[in-house]
Amino acid sequence: MAAGKPSVELCKGVGGLEKVVLREARGTSAEVYLYGAHVTSWKNDHGEELLFVSSKAIFKPPKAIRGGIPICFPQFGGFGNLEQHGFARNRLWSIDENAPPFEGNSCFKAFVDLILMPSEEDSKIWPHSYEFRLRVALTPGGDLILTSRVRNTSADGKPFAFTFAYHTYFSVSDISEVRVEGLETLDYLDNLKDKERFTEQGDALTFESEVDKIYLSTPTKIAIIDHEKKRTFVLRKEGLPDAVVWNPWDKKAKAMADFGDDEYKHMLCVEAAAIEKPITLKPGEEWKGRQELSAVPSSYCSGQLDPQKVLYG
């Protein structure tokens, strides 16, 4: 791809929904829809798509977009009056012209700041006063950084609590050729077994059936290794102690109207999250959760990536 200058462009996307296109000098790009503050594309300098979005994804409110990086807020999962995974992913966000400065991000040129504030309708189902600011940034090297800041703006002195996840769908060549490193020996809650707690036994996670697990007290760095593509995704996170790993496999894939029957083979969700211990904010307090994604070539020695280099280097 031809090199150019970093750019930020607001334009129309699928279904006439507005999106912001971020481009970096080396040809990397990302797209984020104002609907849901939803990242739907992240491409490397060869123009290869690194995120998975279903061919059957519905770009029409109030349906959340299937794939990319949905924002799960103010809850992950479903309980009470709130819909599954909260409402942030199917609300229209605004471009935040008055975003306070983000520490350490001053060198980035390709970024957008978005903001969500409670509507009257939302206040009926989740009666709290907040500002949710999200910055989506593309680094000069092509890494994708999402920084969320949630502030309690209540005037009534009441705290509130929430759970959260960046529900990232990675594009993979073949799920049976993928391994995840950095979660071995950790405790997890198995959503397929009523959130029963187990300890991960394997050297690394590999996939041969449906998986839906919440790993607890996870490291700040997780590697997703795609053997066939010789590519490793590195997920770095701050303020997000948990990690969800999800693939619906064949039966659940067939049951989802907005997901192709065989598409489970080409995606894997690894999600930076805060689920086990909800985040509580008193009035005036702010929480920050950051996720940085990079894609690097993997080189193999007897079929294995050197995990020390990826996870601790």
Automatic annotation (TrEMBL):
Pfam families associated with the record: Aldose_epim
What keywords sit in the KW lines? Isomerase
A GO molecular function term, named singly, is: glucose-6-phosphate 1-epimerase activity
Q: If you read the UniProt record, what top EC class would you report for this enzyme, in one word?
A: isomerase
- Name the source's superkingdom: Eukaryota
Per its record, the protein catalyses:
alpha-D-glucose 6-phosphate = beta-D-glucose 6-phosphate
List all membrane-crossing ranges: none
InterPro entries recorded: Aldose_1/G6P_1-epimerase, G6P_1-epimerase, Gal_mutarotase_sf_dom, GH-type_carb-bd
Give me the residues that bind substrate, please. 66, 84, 89
Output a single Gene Ontology CC term carried by this record: cytoplasm
What is the E.C. number?
5.1.3.15
Q: Which SUPFAM superfamilies match?
A: Galactose mutarotase-like
* Any one GO biological process: carbohydrate metabolic process
State the active site. 167, 271
In terms of Gene3D superfamilies, this protein maps to: 2.70.98.10
Q: What's this protein's family per the entry?
A: Belongs to the glucose-6-phosphate 1-epimerase family.
The name under which this protein is listed is glucose-6-phosphate 1-epimerase
The protein's organism comes out as Apostasia shenzhenica
Q: What is the lineage of its organism?
A: Eukaryota, Viridiplantae, Streptophyta, Embryophyta, Tracheophyta
